[in-house]
Amino acid sequence: QRLMTSAVVIVDDECAGYAAWNEAQLASLFVARSWRSRGLGQALLQHCESCMMRQGHEFIWLNCILGNLAARRFYERAGWSCGEERSWPVECEDVDAEVHAWIMRKHLLERHTSGS
Questions:
Q1: Contacts of 15 (CB under 8 A, 6+ apart)
Q2: How large a percentage of the chain has pLDDT more than 70?
Q3: Of 13-17, 66-70, 92-96, where does mean pLDDT reach its minimum?
Q4: What are the b/e assignments for 29-46, b being 16+ CB within 10 Å?
Q5: In which region does residue 90 sit, left (phi positive, over 0), alpha (psi from -120 to 50) or beta (all else)?
Q6: Radius of gyration over alpha carbons of the chain, in Å?
Q7: Contact present, 62 and 75 (Cβ < 8 Å)
Q8: What pLDDT score was predicted for residue 96?
Q9: pTM assigned to the model
Q10: Could you tell me how many helices (H) and strands (E) the chain has, helices first?
Q11: Is 87 in contact with 103 (CB distance < 8 Å)?
């Protein structure tokens, strides 16, 4: 299994945002509250998609926590599609729980044409 690949945006010595992915899964995307609605999340997402495409992935996916409609709309505006729902168990300090998420996918199209 490959290690996570990540990208971090630092502004004035503070983390404004970060993202992490493993193979074709976008595992995490975060933008600090003070940087939201300023295009940073979109730029970070585009960077991740470009990196995954360069790594050879044609289809990419992520888990979007069920009920997080703002995140779901963010990804849908960026061309992601919401598929099925998925649940998996987690253990946290002797408490059994389940995480529920929408599986979102995106087909990365070739962004260049080959010369003839």
A1: 8, 9, 32
A2: 92
A3: 92-96
A4: bebeeebeeeebbeebbe
A5: beta
A6: 16
A7: yes
A8: 86
A9: 0.85
A10: 2, 6
A11: no
Span between the terminal Cα atoms of the chain, in Å: 38
Per-residue pLDDT tens for 43-70? 999 999 999 999 999 999 999 999 999 9
pLDDT, tens digit, for every residue of 23-50?
999 999 999 999 999 999 999 999 999 9
Name the residue with tokens 């979102």. 104
Give the separation between CA 107 and CA 12, rounded to whole angstroms. 35
What are φ and ψ of residue 55, in 5° steps?
-75, -5
Q: Which residues are CB-contacts of 94 (< 8 A; sequence separation ≥ 6)? A: none
For residues 51 and 57, the answer to whether their CB atoms sit within 8 Å is no
∠ CA 10-63-39, nearest 5°, is 35
DSSP class of residue 112? S
Residue 112 has pLDDT above 70, yes or no: no
Query: Residues, the chain, total?
Result: 116
